[in-house]
Design a protein that fits this description.
Blueprint lengths: L4 E4 L2 E4 L17 E4 L2 E3 L7 E2 L1 E5 L2 E6 L1 H5 L7 E4 L4 E4 L1 E6 L7 E2 L6 H12 L8 E6 L12 H4 L7 E5 L4 E4 L1 H6 L12 E5 L5 E7 L3 H4 L7 H17 L2 E6 L7 H13 L5 E4 L1 E2 L6 H13 L5 E2 L2 E5 L28 H13 L3 E6 L2 H18 L7 E4 L8 H7 L2 E5 L7 H11 L1 H4 L5 H6 L4 E4 L9 H10 L19 H7 L2 H6 L17 E4 L16 E6 L2 E5 L1
Parallel strand pairs: 3-8, 4-9, 10-17, 11-12, 12-13, 17-18, 18-20, 19-21, 21-22, 22-23, 23-24, 24-25
Antiparallel strand pairs: 1-2, 2-7, 3-6, 4-5, 6-7, 9-26, 13-14, 14-16, 15-16, 26-27, 27-28
Helix pairs in contact: 6-7, 9-10
The chain binds zinc ion.
């Protein structure tokens, strides 16, 4: 609560704007009054109220319906919440902007279905265009082994490149490999691997940086295509109750995505608040760091902000590229760390010294430890505190490292849908780890129990950005159809309230926005969501079906069902 706000008998009002509790007429009546709701504020001092008044983009009063209604003038718009559940606006702490129209292969399940979807998508393209898709998993293929032959069967002459669900490996057909001149003699690039069969021929599977050998041939998008993709994604986000998105692509400083966000800010079309990460560069110079800090300082309006840098330390479990302390189950390899500890410490320390927050993708226990070690070293070398550096994903932490998040003030940035026990998780992911490590992977309760600040995201488009699907996954650890019975390692389930807090208050803390966002309090931004059902009083098994009825961002209705 900020200075100038007053409290009286369960009614919170902005003292500077409204006369308040003494019955005096208000000086500046609210624009809107929302009454008869079941409002979960996230604020422990006043956790549940019925009504809110907003003026401009802020909440100016909160309390019982009768008291709040009394603040209205003739010009105030009255909105009856009809007893519905209201929560603070959702904040996705790890999101990406998908810019290219591509075949959706999520949950295809088998080769026949992948081929069917690709044919359908190809029919919408010009005859010479590249066929791209995303969302496949190893378990879609016989023996969990993706191979170019399945694509050659349908497309012998047109180039095809399919990105997997996690975005860390691609499958190219023979035509695409030929165009890129990838053959048995092509060497693996740095931080990448060209998968080969027993005879040494490329299988078409390209891991990590090897994907760019083919991907760089796909024609670039235009600035207008990216801008239109941004507009469409904002509509989608608002329909899921998202009022803030934290973009984890490291694309924030320049280029076609940077232009799209800047244009949206200029043209007043932002209907979601964005915080966009800048790159975490191995050879970063002092001038570059100054440029990143200046970008942050120029954008203080709350709709588009900067100030964080995104780096990658390893790959994924499904591709066996996440960096592990011990080999993958029944294998000898331990993944693909992208940094040496020395280099990482040097670069993290440079960003930290420049006052920038750092977020590091680290999935395997080795990479997670490297991230924590680098953050610890930077704080020591620079004498800094409160930087709120973040580890992204943290899927398979060593249990001994869990207390370090709280001790070092490092944010645990996890993704709710990663606990969803789908076919890829059960038949490829968990077996790759083996039961010991699988039993504590994506175990959000462990971070809560260790006292860490845990911010939830989606990693969209890796998974859906539909927040209630994520809440359902974190709370039940089951699929919507109720499998596996009893949940996947159900000891790691968390409560609905904890899941909502991770998607609101904790996500706001992760971006230094706790004074403005994350809870519904007088003086904070009027960002909130009206839901179809009371998520705190229903069977968790049905949470995935809860719909957003209305989304309010900065006092404005940006979505209404
Ligand atoms: Zn991501």
């Amino acid at each position: 609560m900020k200075k100038g706000w007053s409290v009286c008998q369960g009614l919170f009002v902005a003292g500077a704007l409204l006369a308040g509790c003494n019955g005096q007429p208000s000086q500046a009546p609210p624009d809107r009054v929302f009454t008869n709701g079941r409002i979960w504020t996230g604020d422990a001092r006043l956790p549940e109220v019925q009504a809110m008044a907003t003026l401009g983009d802020r909440i100016v009063a909160i309390g019982p319906t009768e008291s709040i209604r009394a603040l209205a003038s003739g010009a105030t718009e009255m909105i009856d919440l009809a007893g519905r559940r209201v929560v603070p606006g959702f904040n996705d702490a790890h999101w990406h902007l998908p810019t290219r129209r591509t075949a959706d292969l999520v949950d295809a399940g088998n080769v026949k279905e992948i081929q069917r979807r690709l044919r359908e998508f190809a029919a919408t393209l010009g005859p010479d265009e590249w066929i791209t898709g995303r969302g496949w998993g190893p378990s879609d293929f016989p023996d969990n082994q993706a191979h170019r032959r399945y694509l050659d069967e349908v497309f012998p002459d047109r180039p095809v490149l399919l990105t997997d669900r996690d975005g860390h490996q691609t499958l190219a057909n023979s035509r695409a490999l030929a165009l890129a001149a990838v053959t048995r003699v092509t060497r693996d690039p740095e931080n990448g691997r060209i998968d080969r069969d027993a005879a040494g021929e490329p299988t078409g599977l390209l891991k990590e940086s090897a994907s760019s050998l083919v991907r760089r041939l796909i024609p670039a998008l235009t600035a207008d295509q990216v801008y239109r993709a941004l507009l469409a994604e904002m509509d989608k986000a608002a329909s899921f109750g998202l009022t803030s998105l934290q973009v984890a692509s490291g694309s924030g400083a320049s280029g076609i995505e940077y232009e799209a966000y800047q244009r949206a800010l200029r043209e007043g079309t932002l209907k979601v608040r964005f915080r966009v990460a800048v790159p975490f560069e191995r050879e970063v110079t002092p001038a570059r760091l100054t440029e990143f800090a200046a970008l942050r300082d120029r954008h203080r309006g709350g709709l588009l902000t900067y100030g964080i840098a995104k780096g990658m330390l390893d790959g994924t479990v499904d591709a066996h590229t996440a960096a592990m302390l011990e080999p993958y189950a029944e294998r000898t390899d331990t993944g693909l760390p992208m940094w040496t500890q020395g280099d990482l410490n040097r670069v993290v320390t440079a960003y930290d010294k420049a006052g920038l927050q750092v977020q590091l993708h680290a999935i395997g226990d080795r990479a997670i430890r490297m991230a924590l070690d680098a953050f610890e070293q930077a704080a020591k070398d620079n004498g800094t505190t409160g930087r709120r550096h973040r580890v992204e994903h943290i899927e398979v932490p060593a249990l001994a490292d869990l207390p370090r998040f709280k001790a070092l003030g490092v944010i645990a940035s996890t993704q709710a849908m990663f606990a969803s026990p789908d076919a890829i998780t059960l038949t490829n992911y968990a077996p790759a780890l083996g039961p010991g490590r699988a039993s504590h992977s994506n175990a959000f309760k462990l971070f809560d129990d260790a006292g860490a600040v845990q911010a939830f995201g989606s990693d969209y488009p890796v998974f859906t950005m539909e927040v209630m699907r994520g809440v359902h996954a974190a709370v039940t650890r089951e699929l919507p159809e109720g499998t596996p019975a009893g949940g996947w390692y159900p000891q790691h389930r968390i409560s609905v309230a904890a899941a909502v807090q991770h998607f609101t208050k904790d996500a706001a803390f992760a971006s230094f926005d706790e004074a403005d966002k994350g809870t519904l309090e007088v003086g904070k931004l009027a960002d909130f969501v009206v839901l179809s059902d009371d998520i705190f009083a229903m069977s968790p098994a049905r949470l995935h079906g809860v719909k957003v009825v209305m989304t309010v961002m900065g006092g404005q209705r940006v979505f209404q069902r």
